[in-house]
Each structure stands twice: as C-alpha cells, then as structure tokens.
Design goal:
Helix 3 packs antiparallel against helix 4 and helix 6 packs antiparallel against helix 7. The protein folds into 3 domains: 96 residues, Immunoglobulins (Immunoglobulin-like, Sandwich), CATH 2.60.40; 105 residues, no CATH class; 133 residues, Glutaredoxin (3-Layer(aba) Sandwich). The chain is 42% helix and 24% strand. The N and C termini lie far apart (93 Å). The chain is α+β, with helices and mostly antiparallel strands and 368 residues long.
C-alpha cells in the first residue's frame, strides 16, 4: 500500500511537471540550408542566447520557459538582423525566409498579437512621415533652407502626434507587457517628471520586466541631469589631444552653452547639425556657444564630420562609442541629445531640436 502511494505521488508530480507552462516554437524558414537558428534576448551590452536549433529541411523546434512575455530575436547564426517578436509560454508558430527573416510572421503569442495591433496604429502616420522626409531631404539637397525649415515643422508635428498615440496606449493598457517597450520608445522625448508619472501608471505586475527595472534605474540618473540641476563637470580631449573641461567653457562671455552629444555615424545628428550651426551663427556674438561631445569610434570619421558640417565650436571625445564617459554621466541613451546650460552651470533646457533650440536661446538671451 505504501509503495503504491509513493508510485502514485511520483506519477502525480511528473504529470504536474509535464503541465508546467512553457513555450514551444515551431518554425519554418524558406531558402535556408542546414543552418543554426538562435533565439536571443537583448541585455545591456548585447544579446544573451536563450536557445538554438539546427534547421532540418527548413524546419526547427525550440522549447523553454520565460518568467513573463518578452521581446526576443530569432536569427540565423552568422547573419545580421532577424525577426523580433514576443515570446510567452504558449504554442508559437514562426515562418519566414532566410533572406528577409525580419519580415516573418508569428502566431500563437497573444502579446505579439497585441504588439502587432499597436504597430498598426502608426501605419498611416509612418507612410506620411516617409513622404514628408523625402520632401525634406530634397529641399536640403537643393539648398532651400527656408522650405526645409518649414517641412521640419511638419515632421515635428507628426512626431508629437505619434508620441501622443504612445502615451494613450500606455494609459489604456497599464498591465500590458507591450507597454514597457512603448514607454522605452517614448523615453527620449520625456522630461523626468513625465517619465516618472508614466512609470507610476504601469501595473505592479510589470515591475519584474527588465525594461521597467532599467528605466527606474535610469530615472535616478536623469533626475541628476534634469532641468534645474547643476550640470556635472567632465574633461575630455579635443581634436588636438588637449584636455578640455566642460566648466572651462561655461561663464565669461558664454551666457548659454549647448552640450551637444552627437556622432559622425548618426544620420539624425547630421540632419540636425545645420540647425545648430544656424543658431550658433545667429546668437554666438550674443553669448551662445556649443560644446560638442562625440560618440565616434575613430578620429578620422569624427574630424571629417566636423569639417564637412562646418561645426566651428570646441569638440571633445574619448572615441569610445556608447562607452563615452560623459554620455553615461548624462544618461544619454540616444543621439542627438543635448543640454542647454546657463552661465552658472544650471541646466535650462534638454533635447532642444529644430526651431525649439532657437526659440529657447532667444527667449533666455533676450530676458537678460
């Protein structure tokens, strides 16, 4: 009797284990040989492999367990890119082509379906943005700065519209595992108070999500460089190898200093540079200056971009890419990024682009 009871207990435990929630991914990839596919998730500094499988006649299967629905990347080993989707403990089917895996389809993940519906909210505005940007680029190439400036306002208005959609999604879906990713997309545009407010609206069930953990940690850093705070000092070498401190450029004839984080490899930075040049030319003699901090990797690229874009102010860099010490100090996670600092070293503006920079500089200088 005792042996029978133990046997039944073992069988019950085994059955319970068999029923434990897990994900099962059944995938097919056309146009691939007997290659290895890897399932990985983004972590600070790169990716962590969750599982891998060898393709057999274009098919593969993966199994595992995740603590909560999360974004993963499915890629063919040795090839760049891949398919991003939400994995959760369910039966998931993936299909794609080896040459364009990023366009593959995913079914069986409720969170992925939710994410697809979220992305569809932007289909119309994304198509509109592409057309507007084409017009903007053409105006720039023709040297029509007045038209380009006008079109830039259209782009900014569309940016605002899309950000409003993101905020609305978070407000309507506080417990969705998609919401942390949406908030991460928004983070660049938010001041500290608004980011703290939106984080506070998320359901407590999301506190375990790594994106939420990371944003809360970043919020502490952002508070230290928020508008109204004293700008932290730092020293880096200029293009000639001479050390230059931030505070050596603050005060004196400089009533306003723009700390401009950028890089030669960053298209949006290069797109914004003409605007910064325009503001510098208009207000430099009235007390406005710029302090460029580059996240470049090579001196050659850095110096060439300075010359090509006619950036005549002081530039510094440690040529460490995203490991740039001042970028970390100022919690910069996307570029271009900037901080406007007054003669006392107090931050009075953050991420001012386009006409917003000129308006803020004019407003402050004319009030003095």
């Amino acid at each position: 009797m005792k042996k029978s009871f133990i046997l039944l207990l073992v069988v019950a435990i085994a059955a319970a284990c068999a029923r434990e929630p897990k994900f099962v991914i059944n995938g097919t990839i056309d146009g691939a040989g007997n290659e290895t596919v890897i399932l990985q998730k983004r972590i600070p500094g790169g990716y962590e492999v969750i599982d891998s499988a060898v393709l057999e006649n274009g098919a593969f299967k993966m199994e595992g367990v995740v603590d909560y629905p999360q974004m993963v990347n499915l890629a063919i080993r040795g090839k760049r890119g891949g398919l991003n989707f939400y994995v959760e403990n369910s039966e998931i089917t993936v299909h794609g082509h080896a040459d364009s895996l990023y366009t593959g389809s995913v079914s069986g993940s409720a969170t992925q379906a939710e994410y697809d519906a979220y992305k569809a909210l932007f289909d119309e505005s994304n198509a509109e943005m592409t057309k507007i940007y084409d017009r903007y680029r053409a105006a720039r190439m023709e040297g029509n700065d007045e038209l380009a400036s006008s079109i830039e306002k259209e782009l900014e208005a569309l940016d605002t519209k899309q950000n409003d959609l993101r905020k609305e999604f978070i407000a309507n879906n506080p417990a969705s595992y998609v919401s942390p990713s949406v908030l991460s997309e928004l983070a660049y545009y938010l001041e500290v108070d608004e980011m703290e407010n939106l984080l506070g609206k998320l359901d407590t069930t999301l506190n375990k999500v790594q994106t939420v953990v990371t944003m809360k940690e970043k919020l502490v850093q952002l508070k230290a460089v928020a508008v109204g705070q004293k700008a932290p000092d730092f020293t880096l070498n200029d293009v000639d190898g001479n050390p230059v401190s931030l505070y050596s450029k603050i005060g004196g004839d400089t009533k306003l200093l723009l700390i401009d984080f950028w890089a030669a490899w960053c298209p949006p930075c290069r797109q914004e540079n003409p605007n910064v040049v325009k503001v510098w030319k208009e207000y430099n003699k009235k007390g406005f200056n710029v302090f460029g901090v580059s996240l470049d990797r090579t001196k050659e690229d850095w110096v060439k971009a300075i010359q090509d874009d006619k950036l005549t102010w002081t530039h510094v860099s440690d040529l460490k890419y995203w490991d740039c010490a001042p970028a970390k100090l100022y919690a910069v996670s996307a570029i271009p990024a900037n901080f406007l600092v007054d003669a006392d070293g107090i931050i009075v503006g953050h991420n001012l682009r386009g006409d917003a920079l000129a308006q803020k500089v004019k407003e402050i200088l004319e009030s003095k």
